[in-house]
Amino acid sequence: MDSGSDDDLVLHTLLSAAQDMIRQRGETSHREKKHRKYINRDRETAHELLVRDYFASDSLYDLSKFEDRFRISRNLFLRIASDLERNYEFFQLR
Fold first, then answer.
1. Taking residues 29-33, what's their average pLDDT?
2. Of 23, 40, 83, 84, which shows the fewest CB atoms inside 10 Å?
3. Angle at which helices 63-70 and 43-54 pack, to 10 degrees?
4. Cβ count near 66 (within 10 Å)
5. Between vectors from CA 35 to CA 30 and to CA 38, what angle results, nearest 5°?
């Protein structure tokens, strides 16, 4: 083989590889995006359980368990919640 045909072979191989890379990039950019699987966490029931367990008059956990769990006294938490509700419309029930 002469050097001209060797150069042609190298050029053809490089062009072919470049075309393959371009084609692969195009395919990956047009792939359908995967959506995350929705996990139903039943937030309303969780809220009801939290209120019943920690804030009801016959709550399951006492004040010390509240402080262990949330690292704040229940009285201070309720005072902060009350102040937020009183001063910011965002925290008021509709």
1. 64
2. 40
3. 130
4. 19
5. 170
Contact 54, 61 (CB under 8 A): yes
Whole-model pTM: value is 0.53
What is the 3-class SS of the chain, one letter each residue? Answer: CCHHHHHHHHHHHHHHHHHHHHHHHHHHHCCCCCCCCCCCCCHHHHHHHHHHHHCCCCCCCCHHHHHHHHCCCHHHHHHHHHHHHHHCHHHCCC
Q: Of 49, 42, 44, nearest to 69 (Cα)? A: 49
> How many C-alpha atoms does 67 have within 13 Å on its Cβ side?
6
For 65, residues 6+ apart whose C-beta sits below 8 A from its C-beta are 54
Q: Please tell me the distance from the alpha carbon of residue 52 to that of residue 61, in angstroms, as a whole number.
A: 9
